[in-house]
Amino acid sequence: MLKGKIAILILLALLLAACGGQGLVEVTRIVEVEGEAVEVTRVVEGEAVEVTRVVEVEGEAMEVTRVVEEMVEVTPTPIGGELILYACLFDPDKLEVIFQTFQQQYGVDVTCLDMSSGEALERIRAESENPQGDVLFGTTNLSHVNLATDGLSQPYQGVGWNQLPDGSLKDPEGYWAGFYYGVIGFACSPERLEELGAECPGSWQDLLDPVFEDEIVIASPAASGTSYTVLSGLAQLYGEDEAFEYYHQLDPNIAQYTESGSAPGRMAAQGEFAIGIAFTHDIQVQQDAGLPVIISFPEEGTPFEIGGISIIAGTRNEAAARAWVDYVFSPAFQRYHNDVAHRIPVIPEVALAEGTVTLDDVTLIEGYDPTEWAALRDDLIARWQDEIGSQR
């Protein structure tokens, strides 16, 4: 809880200062360094200044480092109205802080409806004649690729799109852009593993051990982009037919196919099951909450996601939707997102929070491209439903 409050204060300080008035702006940043950490300085906008970090450890204030920062003045740009975001797989309290800073900058009230990627796609399709949402915010880029293919999103080549290199990080016409990365990991419950006399698996093959019968949870790939990332990753690793042979062997060990991609990590962290397969950043959120969960990665390689953002076709507030898409590529948002949600920024100059698991820290499945696999989703999901899902 402390870490969440600390991160919230960081974002408020940075963004409110950036949106402030003329002259000197007092910026208070709070970070966590073995307890409570307080960083205070006065900043002249547009100029580099030295910052003295003062941390409080066991009641004593200590200066620990000096850094150089630069504040850039941002002029408020009133837009007004309301913005409706779909998906929002993010802690609601931490989201609220972001919405407050956005509202102060643009005068836009933001509402976020939490739902899985599968639910979001179904809802957008159902509302296509009368769109109720404005932006699909987050989820794997396979959702955004499918929206664009179905004509349910509209292009915007904004700040973020122009920052990203050509390739798999963005749609070439601007229908979506990736704003974070995430890697698949195994969440292991030490308590359950001890009861089973087993160790946290370190490979995909380890998951087939009979000791894990009814002890593994993973989302349904039909409902969750997280689980489709796993399915497509296995198809890349083994080949499609061999991947389904593997899944048939794995299925007896699956206790439950959830609707939510983050739920397996939470369930393993709470000791309900021995293993949950989820994105690493979602497992780390459980560690932040103080739950005793171990993270491991398959030695054969793991797949990764490109978390995307796109504007829903027929948005009722296009100006606000565009402003939000630009906003998530700001360095302040990218760092905050990394601090509190552990997702990997796509903007290279953003400093990473301690403990961030990057693409370079794990063995990735060779040749895996989430954007290429996004285009194959419907056929792969149909096969999974026929061979696995319908047999449960």
Written account of the structure:
With 392 residues, the chain is of the alpha+beta class. It folds into three domains: 69 residues, no CATH class; 136 residues, 3-Layer(aba) Sandwich (D-Maltodextrin-Binding Protein, domain 2), CATH 3.40.190.10; 155 residues, 3-Layer(aba) Sandwich (D-Maltodextrin-Binding Protein, domain 2), CATH 3.40.190.10. 36% of the residues lie in helices and 25% in strands. Strands 5, 6, 7, 8, 9, 10, 11, 12, 13, 14 and 15 form an eleven-stranded mixed β-sheet that branches. The chain has a four-stranded antiparallel β-sheet with strand order 1-2-3-4. The radius of gyration is 22 Å and the shape is globular. The chain starts with a helix and ends in a 5-residue tail after the last helix. The N terminus is likely disordered.
Write the layout of secondary structure elements.
Elements: H1 2-18, E1 24-31, E2 36-44, E3 48-57, E4 60-70, E5 82-87, H2 92-106, E6 109-114, H3 117-126, E7 135-140, H4 141-149, E8 153-154, H5 159-163, E9 177-188, H6 190-196, E10 216-219, H7 225-238, H8 240-250, E11 254-258, H9 263-269, E12 275-279, H10 280-288, E13 294-296, E14 304-312, H11 318-327, H12 331-341, E15 344-345, H13 370-374, H14 377-387
Parallel strand pairs: 5-6, 5-7, 10-11, 10-12
Antiparallel strand pairs: 1-2, 2-3, 3-4, 7-14, 8-14, 9-12, 9-13, 9-14, 9-15
Helix pairs in contact: 1-2, 1-12, 7-8
